[in-house]
Specification:
The protein is of the alpha+beta class and about 325 residues long. The chain is built from 8 helices and 9 strands. The radius of gyration is 28 Å and the shape is extended.
């Protein structure tokens, strides 16, 4: 059971529904400690008074800011007292069409669940009503000392709460692009070819088909180093397409699309484990694979794959 990180209520109209807030996602990033190079000595951080050099206990630390030439400190209890709704309510002020919210505003997703069985009925009423109308409730609430703009929406079985960036937190993309160079727009022929490539690569959104291969590679790196084995470097990223070669690159991609193949770059075999490489080599009929080092195995698989028509190989997921 996930840990409840906030308890409060959703308010819409004169209806109040007690709910709990739960994280909807979890981070699988490999976590590292810090050590002094060449030793197994852990590095620790301390809270130190910069004037006296003495360590300060966590309970003796308060928040503060420079203000009018001095420093003003505040207690957490003072911040809690001025928080809207005392940090315990999600007040829906309006309902909007969910499709009207630009994805750039979405920040993080949480699940909302009723706090007790007797509150299931009003909870499900709100969820079903928003599901049927396609509306999301816009509200603000305070979590961990920060006020958030949120969109409460109906998910399959539960209410979801998405924290949103306020309008003044969204950077203007025009500042990044600056002045556009002359003739930067695509020609009609280029646009037609690019559209053909996109259509040939189109498919349903299936999130379970995508995996964090980098985390798998980090785990494999640690295991290889523990065994004293060699670590193969990943392939360098592809070079940017030269503007002069753009039309030719598009033409070749369209040719592949018309032959029923999705345009693809050379497969990054470094994402596969050695066992998966050996299975791939077996599929391709590569002889002497059991005696090959990883780098030799990758090269042999790459060479054999290039000679074999696309679509005839079995694909395997990185573990």
């Amino acid at each position: 059971m996930p840990r409840k990180i906030w308890t409060g209520s959703i308010n819409f109209g004169l209806v109040t529904i007690p709910v709990g807030l739960y994280a909807a996602t979890e981070d699988h990033t490999v976590q590292f400690h810090q050590y002094e190079r060449g030793t197994t000595d852990r590095i620790r951080y301390k809270r130190v008074n910069e004037r006296t050099g003495e360590e300060v206990g966590y309970n003796d630390i308060v928040k503060g800011r420079e203000y009018d030439g001095g420093v003003i400190t505040v207690e957490q209890s003072e911040l809690d007292e001025i928080a809207p709704g005392r940090s315990r309510t999600i007040d829906i002020t309006t309902f909007v069409d969910l499709t009207e919210i630009d994805p750039v505003h979405f920040q993080k997703t949480y699940w909302l669940a009723p706090n007790s069985k007797e509150h299931f009925r009003p909870y499900n009423l709100l969820r079903r009503a928003m599901q049927d109308t396609g509306q999301a409730g816009i509200a603000t609430f305070v979590l961990r000392g920060k006020q958030y703009l949120t969109a409460v929406r109906a998910d399959t079985d539960v209410l979801a709460l998405n924290t949103l960036y306020f309008a003044d937190e969204i950077r203007d993309p025009a500042d990044l692009l600056g002045d556009q160079p002359e003739q930067s727009g695509p020609s009609s022929k280029e646009l037609q070819m690019a559209s053909t490539i996109i259509e040939s690569m189109s498919g349903p959104w299936e999130p379970e088909e995508y995996e964090d291969t980098y985390t798998s590679k980090v785990e494999e790196l640690l295991a290889e180093k523990a065994r004293g084995g060699e670590v193969a470097a990943a392939e360098a990223p592809p070079q940017p397409t030269d503007v002069i070669d753009l039309t030719e690159a598009l033409r070749r991609s369209v040719d592949e699309a018309r032959k029923g193949r999705k345009p693809r770059r050379a497969e990054d075999l470094s994402e596969l484990t050695k066992a998966e490489l050996e299975d791939r080599a077996k599929d391709l009929g590569i002889k002497g694979r059991s005696k090959m080092k990883r780098a030799e195995l990758e090269q042999a698989v790459a060479d054999a794959s290039a000679e074999k028509p696309t679509g005839t190989r079995r694909t395997r997921k990185a573990s």
